[in-house]
Each structure stands twice: as structure tokens, then as C-alpha cells.
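A favour, since you know our C-alpha cells better than I do. Just paste the record in under my message, thanks.
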Amino acid sequence: MSVPCFLSSAARSFSVSGPAASLFCRRLLSPSTVTRRNMSSKRQMDHLEKTASNSRQNALYPAEVCGIINESETVKRLRIAVHPDFSFKAGQWVDFFIPGVEKVGGFSMCSSPGLLQREGVIELAVKYTKHPPAHWVHTMCTVGSRVAMRVGGDFFFDPSPSDPSVDLLLVAGGVGINPLYSILLHAVDLLHLNQSSGGRDYNIGSTHLCYSAKNSHELLFKSSITEACREFPDKFSCDFHVTQQSTDVDPHLEPFINRGRITKEELRAHVDPQRTLCYLCGPPPMLEAISKTLTDLGLSKDRILFEKWW
């Protein structure tokens, strides 16, 4: 259920205290203790272990859930009011600390830095699993729940006005769409800035999204993605791939639907070795296959960026 979002004074003044603060501070001051544990091949690596080598901000910020939306049958989108000093780059993730939950979550932002500037909120889309942080989101989180977050990640799109234009190729599998959707929304925001300034701000090239899921019901954010394609047809395009579609597709979505996996031919049409910058996020086997295909098409490895920890 969608809940109107507002920044309450509680969200602005919330501080982490008591036992929760001790836990958060121990994790902040002693991250190396995470990597010294003996890891069993039978135990799934925790988020902090997976991302131990990634860049992180030092600050841990309090936050308050101010909206919950059922994005799909298995994904909830949280709308979260954050501290005024909180900032992130499109594509980054947060360490997600929940009072009373020992495990730390790792969730990519699925909103743009522009939304944060305009409304003081970020959004996270979390798929249901039994992992404690995700399980908490789906079973215990309510509007008003308080958490703490720290931004991290080396996977982001953050161009400066002086940067040369690049064409983006975004390739997503499943919930790997989250950071790529943030990047797409950031590109939309920059185009809107250019419109208001007469095109004097950012050199924005084209963006093509290849997004694969089992069926059209599991394609997240599809309405706003297609809206961007229709608003800026010379800048945005997308192909939704469904691999196990058993029902009819919405007629409005049909022009964007491809049945089957992402093909080399489709990628070839959107790869220019001199201009293309590719961001990948999805299951590891998919990342490996797409990355190899892109290098076969002449795209250098430094122009293929991927998020693999999730």
C-alpha cells in the first residue's frame, strides 16, 4: 500500500542510541573483524563480507521509513526520509542497519539523487528472501520504522558538465534493475536540467536498457521506464526480455517486449567501442556471459562496469 511521504521532525532528529548504537559503532570502527571470520563453503557470505573491498562513506545516517509500496508480488519498495547530510551517486548502495537485527542488509538505491534533492527521500526495492534484513522489510517494517544507513559502492554514473558525451548501455537481470534504474532516472533528471537551461549543462548521449525477467509481472518500474522512452524517444530506448511468459502481455507494454534471452545481435546494435559505457547488474552467470559478448563486440573492459556483490 502506498503511503504519502513527508519528512517528520522525528526523521530529522532521530539518533542511534543504546545497544543499537553500540552495534553500529562496532561495525563502523572495526570492519576488518568481518573479514577475519572463518568462512564455510556452506555459509552464504554476508553483505559486509561481499563488499569489504568496496569504497564506503564514513558517516552512518539515521533514517525513517515513510512509505511502503508493493512493487510486485515479491518486491516491496521503501520510501525513506533521510538526514539532510545524506548523499549518494546514481548506482550506489547502502549498508542497511536495522535495530534488533544483527545482520546488515545491502540494498541498491532505485531512486535518483535528484529525488533526494527535491524531497529529502530515497527509495529501495527489496525482494523477499529469508535473509534477515529482507525478511524484516517484508514482515515487520512499517511506516515510521527507524533504521540507519551508510552509502557505499564503486558502481555509479556521476557525470560532470564538462565531461564528454557517452552512450549508456544498461543490462539488468531480475532485481539487478535497481541501480540501473537509478542511473536511468539520473540521466532523465540531467536531460530535464538541460531543457530548463537551454542545453548548456550536461552532454547527455543515448541510453538503451536491456532488462530480463521471468515474466512481465516481475519487470519492475516498467511504467516509468517506458514513460522515459516516450518522453525522450531520441535519447532513451529499452527492450524487456521475458524468459518464461505464460500469459498475455499488456498491449501498452507489448512494443517493448522480447520473448527470450538478451541476444548478441541486440547488444551489437547498441555498442560503439568509442562511445558506449556499459553498466551490468544481475546474476553472476548472466554478468559473465554478457561481459564476454561485449568484449567480443570490441568494447574494452574499462568500459564494462558491473555490480556483482548482490
Notes: The chain has two domains: 52-152, 167-308. The radius of gyration is 20 Å. Residues 206 and 235 are 4 Å apart (CA to CA). The first helix runs from residue 9 to 13.
